[in-house]
Amino acid sequence: MKPLEISNLIVKYKTLRGWITALDNVSLSIDERGRILALVGESGSGKSTLGLAIAGLLPSNARAEGSIRINGREALGEPYSSKVAVIFQDALASLNPVLAIGEQLAEIFIIHEKLDKRKAIEKAKMFLLEVGLPSEFLDKYPHELSGGQRQRALISMALAMNPELIIADEPTTALDVTVQAKVLLVLKNLVKKAGIPMIYITHDIALAMHIADAIAIMYAGQVVELSDKYDVFENPLHPYTKALLKSIPRIDSDVEELYVIEGEPPSPDNFPKGCRFHPRCPLAFDKCKSKMPEVASLNGRLVRCHLYE
Amino acid sequence: MEIRRVRYGLMLFSILLAISLTTVLLSPFKPTETTYDTLKEPFTQSERGWPYVLGTDSLGRDMLIRVSHAFFLDLGVGLIIVCISGAIGLMLGMIAGYVGRIIDGIIMRMMDVLISIPGFILAIAIAATLGGSLWNAVLAIAIVSIPIYARLSRGLTLSIKEGLFVIAAREAGLSNFRIMLRHVLPHILPIFITQATLELSNAILYFAGLSFIGLGAQEPTPEWGLIMSVGRKYIREAWWFPTMPGVFMFLTVLSINLIGDGVRDYLDPKKRLRV
Amino acid sequence: MSESSVILKTISLRKYYEVRSKFLKRLKQFVKAVDDVTIEIRRGETLAIVGESGSGKTTLGMVLGKLLKPTDGKILFKDLDITHSLPNSLRGKIRIVFQDPYSALNPRLRIVDSLIEPLQAMSVSKKDAVEKAIHYLQLVGLPEPYMNYYPHMLSGGQRQRVVIARALITEPEFLILDEPTSMLDASTQAQILRLLRSIKKGKQITYLFITHNLAVARYMANRIAVMYAGQIVEIGSRNSIFQNPLHPYTRTLLNAYPPPNPRSKWNPIIPEELTVKYYENKCRYIDRCPFKVQKCENNMPTDIEVEENHYVKCFLYT
Fold first, then answer.
1. How many CB pairs under 8 A join B and C?
2. What secondary structure does DSSP assign to B182-201, as a single string?
3. In CATH terms, is domain A4-83+163-308 a member of 3.40.50.300?
4. A41 has which bridge partners?
5. What integer is the mean pLDDT of B99-109?
């Protein structure tokens, strides 16, 4: 039984301009516990929508079709439950400003594990230590913490729920680089230790390379490539993936000229006909302009491109 | 919800406007023409073709034509007051908010002085000092209303001031004056106007109030407050005399408030998120 | 290096903000956003200022761009003292490109109107200004019809191009770029960076490139200055910074970036994040530094030239 299996997921939003499709026939899975899958994409790719859909947190003007199975159980359309823990980007908004961190954490144990208050606080202390926050943080309020510390507190709360799946939606994007590194490593270590599968949503492919085991590249509401991370880096299949890897400035080497993908990522109300990447693709040919490519499977790697059909 | 309010307000206002306009254009009576038909009941027949729809006053003047003229007078005066005090308040607040520091301190302290005395009382004092007349009342109320607009304008300016495009305008080398004109003003104007419309009913009420105590419009000018003031002592024999202008004023002010409230709520950015 | 090749120089530049202490008015605390910064920027180079939040890099940019008044120190532009005011002859010679393309343009003005504003402020006629606007719009890769569009009709990348055109239109000799690509997608970032590099090739212009992203700095800069707590703790050529990072903070910063290659090791050791303290008589990095010694507690480090044109403020190198 796979921890996560998504089949043919379609998510549409109703807006003033009619229905727009944010996710178009997305299929992916996490096959084993303890695996981390990164969703990498730019704006309009639908990566955040996918995270919300899995967690059951889509807004009221959204409609979803298809299937999302978590440990075999159909979760599409189900409201948010504690079985899927979500870590958002804005930690300050996610935490109750009038309760101390220790209290918020203990609350989880009191409700879910029916512990008494004393034991719950003890357990909270342990969980905070795991993320590198010593016992004095039990009594601190969210606004007294720095950005990275808040994010780590959120991580400990997510783990405290003992979820079947964790979804992290750009949790470190707003943080400084050094803080980001620390939070990321804490997250990765704890998630691996607990063996909980995680979906990590980010726009930063370099980050994805170190936190995840597998990477799904998303573009314009679809998954265009899904592979093991080493394969994505060493042998990218989709032209978009290749272009993306060549267009990022490198910290580890001098780059003569960055590769530039002309144009901009399309927005959901304006997706091109045929393959959605074709207007910007250096390898596009006639078929690409009119026919949408199906997802092809190559040795367990998924890619949505006419070059591989 | 908000649209319904605006709709009712507009409907009510249109009815009142229609009544007043028709009356002013078609009525055979003149607002200052005295006759011997004093204190006649509403709908008493007259010799002119039309009945005295709302009755007559102590000088035999038709109530309907007087109340209708008063509609335009009070509305007009209200608009003038709002325009004068609004314009002055807008500029003072914008300068105080944008330039800040000492100028801000001076302007706002002046506003504080004005606000510290209850508006109507201060208006009475100013009108009395200048001598009771229509235009002195307008002046008095305008002066007293400035602080509200100044505060509003200053608040709006402060919030716009830190916007990146304003900073970019400074970076581009524009003078403070040009920045206020091109960048701040267009952004604060819509909200400002909406709030100002809500003040319109206040202006009308103040004016009617001053006229009621004799410091505003003077006889024989038809003005709601004035008519009510004169009609007070006739309330037992001719209830329509003080009541009719009151009812008209109440309904007019109500309709303006409904429209203003509705428009303001509709434009409220917080509500927009619901979409 | 002759004096005339230095386009902008600062001497002990400071920008302090007063913070009211909790105990009434007793202790005056200062946020020393820019503290005793002395640098020389060479004509035609791209100097990157790298730092995280609280480092003071943006404040430095705002002060050099004349949007903020310095608390102390001097700024010299081509040997003219511009500390307190910019003489008329230099109007438009120092410009800033801002970070957020979504709020840097007045949403109610058409592109052409936003573009000509800096020229109008310099009393250029509207006709001449519009002509220049067309020229610079095309220079940044946008066709003439865009002149009549409103900002909301443009994408983020296109808006940023307009912002760049607006900065270039007064023909500046010194351009301060404050995180010009941090709010853009990765693919758009590449476009803008390429544009900035190509503009530089065609003109005599010096860039001060402020960024938190060392990889971008590596791509764009000739020299890199690392800022921490208001000070420049290390400055050197791009190669020397990356091949031989000296300051413990620089090293931590470098290690904190995940290299795109998943097979590269990435195990940065990051000290606990603590509030930045503006110590006067000790090294400001002391709370996080794994190499601190007694000397660091009692003295403020000053610049040491460890290799040619590579300076660091750290007692490890005495």
1. 45
2. IIIHHHHHHHHHHHHHHHHH
3. yes
4. A218
5. 91
C-alpha to C-alpha distances, B66 to A99, B37, B71, B135, B221, nearest whole angstrom: 65, 15, 9, 20, 9
So what's the pLDDT on residue A240?
Answer: 95
Supply the range of the domain harboring residue B194.
65-272
- Considering only the beta carbons, identify the residue of A210, A230, A243 that sits closest to C258: A210
Q: Where are the domains of chain C?
A: 3-93+172-317
Give the whole-angstrom CA distance, residue B110 versus residue B6: 36
Closest-CA residue of C relative to B186 is C108
Q: Which residues of chain A have a CB within 8 Å of the CB of C215? A: 248-251
Tens digit of each residue's pLDDT (9 = 90 or more) over A120-176: 999 999 999 999 999 899 999 999 998 899 999 999 999 998 999 999 999 998 889
pTM: 0.87
C80: β partners: C77
> C3-93+172-317: which CATH number, 3.40.50.9100, 3.40.50.300, 2.40.50.180, 3.40.30.10?
3.40.50.300
pLDDT-derived band at B273, boundaries 50, 70, 90:
very low
Mutate to test the interface with A, among C154, C185, C195 (most CBs of A within 10 A): C185
What mean pLDDT, rounded, does chain A reach?
A: 91
Residue pLDDT, tens place only, A253-279: 998 899 999 888 888 888 898 999 999
Chains contacting chain A through 3 or more C-beta pairs under 8 A: C
Condensed to tens digits (0 to 9), the pLDDT of residues B142-151 reads: 999 999 999 9
Chain C CB contacts of A229 under 8 Å are 262
Torsion sign across C-alpha atoms A88, A91, A93, A95 = positive
Say if residues C181 and C216 touch (Cβ distance below 8 Å): yes
